Amino acid sequence: MNGTSTVSTGTSGTHKHEITIEIDEAQLTVYADSHLAMLWHVAQANPADGFDNPSAGDLVEHVGREIIRRWLKHIQPEMWHHQGHHYFWNQLRRLATYKPGGPSGSPEWHRGTWVPKVANDDERQAETRPQADTPG
After folding, report:
1. Rounded to an integer, what distance in angstroms lies between the CA atom of residue 2 and that of residue 127?
2. Ordered DSSP codes for the chain
3. Quick one: CA torsion of 34, 43, 104, 120, rounded to 10 degrees?
4. How far apart are CA 65 and CA 59, in angstroms?
5. In terms of C-beta density within 10 A (0-12 exposed, 13-18 middle, 19 or more buried), how is residue 43 classed?
6. Which pLDDT score is estimated for 78?
7. Does 92 map to a domain?
8. Which of 3, 13, 29, 38 makes an SS bond possible with 21, Cβ 3.0 to 4.6 Å?
9. How many distinct structural domains can be found in the chain?
10. How far apart are CA 28 and CA 100, in angstroms?
11. Are 39 and 69 in contact (CB under 8 A)?
């Protein structure tokens, strides 16, 4: 884990500390249990707006999954079949269409917006999808 720490003197002569902690998601499986528990708290304290940027929630979910995986390591349970967001994601997909904020793969893509679907959007999309070849 890498990090930085800076100290500055506040207006009343007290010290203020700013700490930056870097979390490598690819290393979650090798971190010590105590370190992983600390990362859980750090990820939860992340000041990023989890409703505006998916990375804060994704990080917490990955750290949490690693904690659960270790807790249940002797039985290897199914961990991804049901997700808390499945219902809400499905409702959003049914009722709205995502309009990307930029090209696919770019950071701007994630800054797009959801717009309500009009009644026959699904029918129009079905008409433009390629049909499977049928024997004639």
Report:
1. 52
2. --EEEEEEE-TTS-EEEEEEE---GGGTTTS-HHHHHHHHHHHHH--S-TTT-HHHHHHHHHHHHHHHHHHTTTT----SSS-TTHHHHHHHHHHEEEE-SSSTTSGGGGG-EEEEPPTTHHHHHHHHSPPPP---
3. 120
4. 10
5. buried
6. 77
7. yes
8. 3
9. 2
10. 31
11. no
Instruction: State the pLDDT at residue 101.
Output: 93
Residue 38: inside a domain, yes or no? yes
Q: Has residue 1 been placed in a domain?
A: no
Summarize pLDDT for 65-113 with one digit per residue, the tens.
999 999 888 877 777 788 888 899 999 999 999 999 999 989 899 899 9
Q: What would the mean pLDDT of 11-31 be, rounded to a whole number?
A: 87
Q: Domain range for residue 119?
A: 87-129
Average pLDDT of the chain is 83
State which of 41, 56, 81 marks the end of a domain: 81
If one compares 15 and 47, the residue with the highest pLDDT of the two is: 47
pLDDT value, residue 94: 93
